[in-house]
Protein backbone atom coordinates (compact mmCIF):
# COMPACT_ATOMS: atom_id res chain seq x y z
CA UNK A 1 0.00 0.00 0.00
CA UNK A 2 2.86 2.35 0.85
CA UNK A 3 4.40 1.82 -2.60
CA UNK A 4 1.12 2.74 -4.27
CA UNK A 5 0.85 5.84 -2.14
CA UNK A 6 4.38 6.93 -2.99
CA UNK A 7 3.76 6.39 -6.70
CA UNK A 8 0.46 8.26 -6.49
CA UNK A 9 2.11 11.13 -4.66
CA UNK A 10 4.73 11.39 -7.39
CA UNK A 11 2.09 11.50 -10.09
CA UNK A 12 0.20 14.21 -8.21
CA UNK A 13 3.36 16.29 -7.91
CA UNK A 14 4.07 15.67 -11.59
CA UNK A 15 0.62 16.88 -12.55
CA UNK A 16 0.57 19.82 -10.17
CA UNK A 17 3.10 21.71 -12.23
CA UNK A 18 2.12 20.51 -15.68
CA UNK A 19 4.07 17.26 -16.10
CA UNK A 20 6.74 17.91 -13.50
CA UNK A 21 7.65 16.99 -9.95
CA UNK A 22 10.53 17.81 -7.62
CA UNK A 23 12.65 15.27 -5.78
CA UNK A 24 16.08 14.77 -4.29
CA UNK A 25 19.31 15.50 -6.17
CA UNK A 26 20.13 12.45 -8.32
CA UNK A 27 23.37 10.53 -8.35
CA UNK A 28 25.24 9.73 -11.58
CA UNK A 29 25.48 6.12 -12.68
CA UNK A 30 28.81 4.40 -13.00
CA UNK A 31 30.40 4.51 -16.42
CA UNK A 32 29.77 1.45 -18.57
CA UNK A 33 30.94 0.12 -21.92
CA UNK A 34 29.13 1.55 -24.96
CA UNK A 35 25.92 -0.18 -25.95
CA UNK A 36 24.91 -0.91 -29.53
CA UNK A 37 21.19 -0.29 -30.00
CA UNK A 38 19.09 -1.13 -33.05
CA UNK A 39 15.69 0.54 -33.47
CA UNK A 40 13.18 -1.17 -35.78
CA UNK A 41 10.15 1.04 -36.21
CA UNK A 42 8.18 3.86 -37.75
CA UNK A 43 7.24 7.45 -36.94
CA UNK A 44 6.46 6.76 -33.26
CA UNK A 45 10.17 6.03 -32.70
CA UNK A 46 11.53 8.50 -35.25
CA UNK A 47 14.15 11.11 -34.51
CA UNK A 48 14.72 12.87 -32.18
CA UNK A 49 13.90 9.90 -29.92
CA UNK A 50 17.02 7.82 -30.74
CA UNK A 51 19.20 10.95 -30.67
CA UNK A 52 17.79 11.82 -27.26
CA UNK A 53 18.42 8.27 -26.08
CA UNK A 54 22.09 8.54 -27.07
CA UNK A 55 22.48 11.90 -25.30
CA UNK A 56 20.69 10.65 -22.19
CA UNK A 57 22.88 7.55 -22.00
CA UNK A 58 26.09 9.48 -22.61
CA UNK A 59 25.21 12.02 -19.92
CA UNK A 60 24.82 9.15 -17.43
CA UNK A 61 28.15 7.58 -18.31
CA UNK A 62 26.55 4.85 -20.43
CA UNK A 63 27.37 5.84 -24.04
CA UNK A 64 25.67 4.10 -26.93
CA UNK A 65 25.64 3.99 -30.69
CA UNK A 66 22.47 3.30 -32.60
CA UNK A 67 21.28 2.18 -36.01
CA UNK A 68 17.80 1.60 -37.32
CA UNK A 69 15.40 0.17 -39.85
CA UNK A 70 12.74 2.84 -40.31
CA UNK A 71 9.68 3.18 -42.53
CA UNK A 72 6.65 5.32 -41.74
CA UNK A 73 3.56 3.25 -41.03
CA UNK A 74 5.44 -0.02 -41.43
CA UNK A 75 4.81 -3.41 -39.86
CA UNK A 76 7.47 -5.60 -38.30
CA UNK A 77 7.16 -7.86 -41.35
CA UNK A 78 8.19 -4.97 -43.61
CA UNK A 79 11.33 -4.52 -41.51
CA UNK A 80 12.22 -8.21 -41.28
CA UNK A 81 15.72 -9.60 -41.66
CA UNK A 82 16.95 -10.24 -45.19
CA UNK A 83 17.91 -13.86 -45.08
CA UNK A 84 19.68 -14.10 -41.73
CA UNK A 85 20.92 -10.50 -41.69
CA UNK A 86 19.26 -7.42 -40.17
CA UNK A 87 18.26 -4.81 -42.75
CA UNK A 88 19.86 -1.47 -41.85
CA UNK A 89 19.03 2.01 -43.15
CA UNK A 90 21.81 3.89 -44.90
CA UNK A 91 21.07 6.87 -42.65
CA UNK A 92 22.25 4.87 -39.65
CA UNK A 93 25.79 6.09 -40.26
CA UNK A 94 29.21 4.48 -40.79
CA UNK A 95 30.02 1.33 -38.89
CA UNK A 96 26.40 0.54 -38.12
CA UNK A 97 26.70 -3.11 -39.14
CA UNK A 98 30.28 -3.74 -38.00
CA UNK A 99 29.35 -5.68 -34.87
CA UNK A 100 26.32 -7.45 -33.42
CA UNK A 101 23.83 -5.33 -31.51
CA UNK A 102 23.24 -5.89 -27.82
CA UNK A 103 19.82 -4.17 -27.68
CA UNK A 104 16.91 -4.35 -30.12
CA UNK A 105 13.99 -1.94 -29.70
CA UNK A 106 11.12 -2.87 -32.01
CA UNK A 107 7.58 -1.59 -32.43
CA UNK A 108 4.57 -2.54 -34.54
CA UNK A 109 1.86 -0.63 -36.39
CA UNK A 110 -0.40 0.89 -33.78
CA UNK A 111 -3.59 -0.96 -34.79
CA UNK A 112 -3.93 -3.73 -32.19
CA UNK A 113 -6.59 -5.63 -34.15
CA UNK A 114 -4.43 -5.51 -37.26
CA UNK A 115 -1.55 -6.89 -35.23
CA UNK A 116 -3.45 -9.97 -34.10
CA UNK A 117 -5.50 -10.61 -37.26
CA UNK A 118 -3.48 -9.65 -40.33
CA UNK A 119 0.11 -8.65 -39.56
CA UNK A 120 1.19 -11.83 -37.73
CA UNK A 121 2.87 -9.69 -35.13
CA UNK A 122 3.37 -12.68 -32.85
CA UNK A 123 5.30 -14.63 -35.47
CA UNK A 124 7.17 -11.66 -36.95
CA UNK A 125 8.32 -10.43 -33.53
CA UNK A 126 9.55 -13.92 -32.64
CA UNK A 127 11.45 -14.25 -35.94
CA UNK A 128 13.05 -10.81 -35.66
CA UNK A 129 14.20 -11.58 -32.11
CA UNK A 130 15.70 -14.88 -33.25
CA UNK A 131 17.44 -13.21 -36.20
CA UNK A 132 19.20 -10.66 -34.01
CA UNK A 133 19.88 -13.17 -31.22
CA UNK A 134 21.59 -15.48 -33.72
CA UNK A 135 24.26 -12.80 -34.14
CA UNK A 136 24.49 -12.12 -30.40
CA UNK A 137 22.94 -14.66 -28.00
CA UNK A 138 23.13 -12.06 -25.24
CA UNK A 139 20.94 -9.60 -27.16
CA UNK A 140 18.06 -7.99 -25.24
CA UNK A 141 14.92 -7.41 -27.33
CA UNK A 142 12.37 -4.85 -26.18
CA UNK A 143 8.91 -4.41 -27.66
CA UNK A 144 8.00 -0.72 -27.61
CA UNK A 145 4.23 -0.67 -27.20
CA UNK A 146 2.66 1.72 -29.76
CA UNK A 147 -0.35 3.93 -29.08
CA UNK A 148 -3.36 4.62 -31.25
CA UNK A 149 -4.30 8.07 -32.61
CA UNK A 150 -6.42 10.32 -30.42
CA UNK A 151 -10.00 10.80 -31.52
CA UNK A 152 -10.22 14.10 -29.62
CA UNK A 153 -7.05 15.65 -28.18
CA UNK A 154 -9.05 18.25 -26.26
CA UNK A 155 -10.85 15.46 -24.41
CA UNK A 156 -8.75 12.27 -24.50
CA UNK A 157 -11.07 10.21 -22.29
CA UNK A 158 -11.92 7.72 -25.06
CA UNK A 159 -8.25 7.38 -25.97
CA UNK A 160 -7.34 6.69 -22.35
CA UNK A 161 -10.01 3.98 -22.18
CA UNK A 162 -8.68 2.39 -25.37
CA UNK A 163 -5.06 2.42 -24.21
CA UNK A 164 -5.87 0.99 -20.79
CA UNK A 165 -7.70 -1.87 -22.50
CA UNK A 166 -5.05 -2.40 -25.18
CA UNK A 167 -2.05 -2.51 -22.82
CA UNK A 168 -2.70 -6.03 -21.46
CA UNK A 169 -3.29 -7.35 -24.97
CA UNK A 170 -0.01 -5.99 -26.28
CA UNK A 171 1.58 -7.89 -23.40
CA UNK A 172 -0.31 -10.95 -24.58
CA UNK A 173 1.24 -10.47 -28.04
CA UNK A 174 4.74 -10.36 -26.54
CA UNK A 175 4.08 -13.40 -24.35
CA UNK A 176 2.87 -15.34 -27.40
CA UNK A 177 5.97 -14.28 -29.35
CA UNK A 178 8.10 -15.62 -26.51
CA UNK A 179 6.36 -18.98 -26.87
CA UNK A 180 7.20 -18.96 -30.60
CA UNK A 181 10.81 -17.74 -30.39
CA UNK A 182 13.62 -20.28 -30.11
CA UNK A 183 15.82 -17.73 -28.33
CA UNK A 184 13.05 -16.92 -25.87
CA UNK A 185 12.35 -20.58 -25.15
CA UNK A 186 16.07 -20.93 -24.40
CA UNK A 187 15.78 -18.20 -21.78
CA UNK A 188 16.31 -14.93 -23.70
CA UNK A 189 12.81 -13.49 -23.51
CA UNK A 190 11.42 -10.43 -25.28
CA UNK A 191 10.51 -7.70 -22.80
CA UNK A 192 8.17 -4.71 -22.85
CA UNK A 193 8.72 -0.96 -22.94
CA UNK A 194 5.29 0.41 -21.91
CA UNK A 195 5.39 3.51 -24.11
CA UNK A 196 1.62 3.74 -24.67
CA UNK A 197 0.77 3.23 -21.00
CA UNK A 198 3.38 5.78 -19.95
CA UNK A 199 1.92 8.42 -22.26
CA UNK A 200 -1.58 7.60 -21.04
CA UNK A 201 -0.50 7.90 -17.41
CA UNK A 202 1.12 11.28 -18.00
CA UNK A 203 -2.02 12.54 -19.72
CA UNK A 204 -4.34 11.02 -17.15
CA UNK A 205 -2.38 12.37 -14.19
CA UNK A 206 -3.27 15.90 -15.27
CA UNK A 207 -7.02 15.24 -15.32
CA UNK A 208 -7.60 15.14 -11.55
CA UNK A 209 -5.24 17.84 -10.39
CA UNK A 210 -5.94 21.40 -9.22
CA UNK A 211 -4.11 24.00 -11.33
CA UNK A 212 -0.91 25.57 -9.97
CA UNK A 213 -1.31 29.05 -8.42
CA UNK A 214 -1.96 31.63 -11.12
CA UNK A 215 -2.76 29.10 -13.84
CA UNK A 216 -6.07 28.00 -15.28
CA UNK A 217 -7.11 24.36 -15.14
CA UNK A 218 -5.87 22.58 -18.27
CA UNK A 219 -6.51 18.96 -17.46
CA UNK A 220 -5.85 15.96 -19.64
CA UNK A 221 -6.39 17.85 -22.90
CA UNK A 222 -3.61 20.30 -22.12
CA UNK A 223 -1.29 17.48 -21.10
CA UNK A 224 -2.08 15.64 -24.33
CA UNK A 225 -1.23 18.75 -26.34
CA UNK A 226 2.12 19.06 -24.57
CA UNK A 227 3.04 15.45 -25.32
CA UNK A 228 1.37 14.71 -28.69
CA UNK A 229 1.97 16.94 -31.71
CA UNK A 230 -0.95 16.13 -34.00
CA UNK A 231 -3.17 13.19 -33.15
CA UNK A 232 -0.44 10.61 -32.61
CA UNK A 233 3.18 11.76 -33.01
CA UNK A 234 5.13 12.88 -29.94
CA UNK A 235 6.06 16.50 -29.42
CA UNK A 236 9.62 17.49 -28.52
CA UNK A 237 8.76 17.00 -24.86
CA UNK A 238 6.97 13.73 -25.62
CA UNK A 239 9.96 12.33 -27.50
CA UNK A 240 12.23 13.19 -24.58
CA UNK A 241 9.88 11.57 -22.07
CA UNK A 242 9.76 8.40 -24.19
CA UNK A 243 13.54 8.33 -24.65
CA UNK A 244 13.88 8.46 -20.86
CA UNK A 245 11.52 5.51 -20.62
CA UNK A 246 13.56 3.52 -23.16
CA UNK A 247 16.73 4.29 -21.21
CA UNK A 248 15.17 3.26 -17.91
CA UNK A 249 13.72 0.03 -19.30
CA UNK A 250 16.74 -1.15 -21.27
CA UNK A 251 19.27 -0.43 -18.50
CA UNK A 252 17.14 -1.23 -15.46
CA UNK A 253 18.21 2.06 -13.89
CA UNK A 254 16.25 5.29 -13.37
CA UNK A 255 17.74 8.04 -15.58
CA UNK A 256 18.16 10.54 -12.74
CA UNK A 257 20.35 13.51 -13.59
CA UNK A 258 20.25 12.85 -17.33
CA UNK A 259 20.68 15.39 -20.12
CA UNK A 260 17.60 17.34 -21.14
CA UNK A 261 16.94 19.24 -24.39
CA UNK A 262 16.91 23.01 -24.54
CA UNK A 263 13.56 24.43 -23.53
CA UNK A 264 12.73 21.70 -21.00
CA UNK A 265 12.77 23.19 -17.52
CA UNK A 266 15.09 21.40 -15.05
CA UNK A 267 12.23 20.54 -12.72
CA UNK A 268 10.22 19.12 -15.63
CA UNK A 269 13.18 17.03 -16.77
CA UNK A 270 13.69 15.73 -13.25
CA UNK A 271 10.03 14.83 -12.89
CA UNK A 272 10.03 12.92 -16.17
CA UNK A 273 13.22 11.11 -15.19
CA UNK A 274 11.61 9.94 -11.95
CA UNK A 275 8.46 8.94 -13.78
CA UNK A 276 10.41 6.97 -16.41
CA UNK A 277 12.21 4.99 -13.73
CA UNK A 278 8.96 4.21 -11.92
CA UNK A 279 7.11 3.21 -15.12
CA UNK A 280 9.92 0.94 -16.31
CA UNK A 281 10.21 -0.74 -12.91
CA UNK A 282 6.46 -1.33 -12.74
CA UNK A 283 6.46 -2.89 -16.22
CA UNK A 284 9.36 -5.18 -15.31
CA UNK A 285 7.33 -6.50 -12.39
CA UNK A 286 4.23 -7.37 -14.44
CA UNK A 287 3.38 -11.10 -14.41
CA UNK A 288 3.22 -13.18 -17.58
CA UNK A 289 -0.34 -13.04 -18.96
CA UNK A 290 -2.40 -16.20 -19.30
CA UNK A 291 -3.10 -17.06 -22.94
CA UNK A 292 -6.70 -18.17 -22.29
CA UNK A 293 -7.45 -14.94 -20.42
CA UNK A 294 -5.85 -13.03 -23.30
CA UNK A 295 -8.15 -14.72 -25.82
CA UNK A 296 -11.27 -14.00 -23.78
CA UNK A 297 -10.30 -10.36 -23.34
CA UNK A 298 -9.78 -9.95 -27.08
CA UNK A 299 -13.09 -11.60 -27.97
CA UNK A 300 -15.05 -9.25 -25.71
CA UNK A 301 -13.24 -6.01 -26.50
CA UNK A 302 -12.82 -6.33 -30.28
CA UNK A 303 -16.38 -5.31 -31.16
CA UNK A 304 -17.19 -3.53 -27.90
CA UNK A 305 -14.21 -1.17 -27.78
CA UNK A 306 -11.36 -1.49 -30.28
CA UNK A 307 -13.18 -1.30 -33.61
CA UNK A 308 -15.68 1.35 -32.47
CA UNK A 309 -12.74 3.48 -31.40
CA UNK A 310 -10.97 2.90 -34.73
CA UNK A 311 -14.13 4.02 -36.52
CA UNK A 312 -14.09 7.36 -34.71
CA UNK A 313 -10.36 8.00 -34.61
CA UNK A 314 -9.13 6.56 -37.91
CA UNK A 315 -11.73 5.56 -40.48
CA UNK A 316 -14.15 8.48 -40.09
CA UNK A 317 -11.50 11.21 -40.62
CA UNK A 318 -10.13 9.31 -43.62
CA UNK A 319 -13.29 8.11 -45.38
CA UNK A 320 -16.22 10.01 -43.90
CA UNK A 321 -19.04 8.91 -41.62
CA UNK A 322 -20.93 6.58 -43.99
CA UNK A 323 -17.89 4.62 -45.19
CA UNK A 324 -16.49 4.44 -41.67
CA UNK A 325 -19.72 2.98 -40.31
CA UNK A 326 -19.82 0.48 -43.16
CA UNK A 327 -16.27 -0.57 -42.32
CA UNK A 328 -17.17 -0.95 -38.65
CA UNK A 329 -20.23 -3.10 -39.34
CA UNK A 330 -18.31 -5.23 -41.83
CA UNK A 331 -15.47 -5.93 -39.42
CA UNK A 332 -17.82 -6.58 -36.51
CA UNK A 333 -19.88 -9.08 -38.55
CA UNK A 334 -16.82 -10.89 -39.85
CA UNK A 335 -15.37 -11.06 -36.34
CA UNK A 336 -18.57 -12.53 -34.90
CA UNK A 337 -18.75 -15.01 -37.77
CA UNK A 338 -15.14 -16.07 -37.11
CA UNK A 339 -15.82 -16.52 -33.40
CA UNK A 340 -18.93 -18.57 -34.19
CA UNK A 341 -17.12 -20.84 -36.65
CA UNK A 342 -13.87 -21.06 -34.63
CA UNK A 343 -14.82 -20.56 -30.97
CA UNK A 344 -11.43 -21.83 -29.79
CA UNK A 345 -9.39 -19.62 -32.13
CA UNK A 346 -6.76 -17.45 -30.48
CA UNK A 347 -3.73 -15.60 -31.84
CA UNK A 348 -1.94 -16.13 -28.53
CA UNK A 349 -1.60 -19.92 -28.48
CA UNK A 350 1.70 -21.55 -29.53
CA UNK A 351 1.69 -23.42 -32.85
CA UNK A 352 0.93 -27.16 -32.63
CA UNK A 353 4.58 -28.15 -33.12
CA UNK A 354 5.73 -25.64 -30.48
CA UNK A 355 7.93 -23.79 -32.99
CA UNK A 356 7.78 -20.25 -34.35
UniProtKB/TrEMBL annotation:
Keyword Signal recorded: yes
Ranked from the top, the taxonomy reads: Bacteria, Pseudomonadati, Pseudomonadota, Alphaproteobacteria, Hyphomicrobiales
What this protein is called in its record is: SGNH/GDSL hydrolase family protein
Identify a single GO molecular function assigned to this protein. Answer: hydrolase activity, acting on ester bonds
What is the protein's species of origin?
A: Methylorubrum populi
* Keyword annotations of the record: Signal
InterPro entries xrefs: SGNH_hydro_sf
Give the range the annotation lists for the signal sequence. 1-29
What the entry lists under Gene3D superfamilies is as follows: SGNH hydrolase
Amino acid sequence: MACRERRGARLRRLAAVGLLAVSAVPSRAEEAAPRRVFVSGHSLVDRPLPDDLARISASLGRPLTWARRHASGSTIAQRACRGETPAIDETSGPGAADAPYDTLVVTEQHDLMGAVLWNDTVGELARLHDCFAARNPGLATWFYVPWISLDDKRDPANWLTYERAAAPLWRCVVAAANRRSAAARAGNRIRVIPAASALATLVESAADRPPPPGRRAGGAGEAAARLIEDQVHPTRLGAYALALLVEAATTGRPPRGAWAPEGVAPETAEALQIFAGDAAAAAAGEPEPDSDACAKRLQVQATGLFWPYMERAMWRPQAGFVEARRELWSKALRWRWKMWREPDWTPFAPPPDGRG
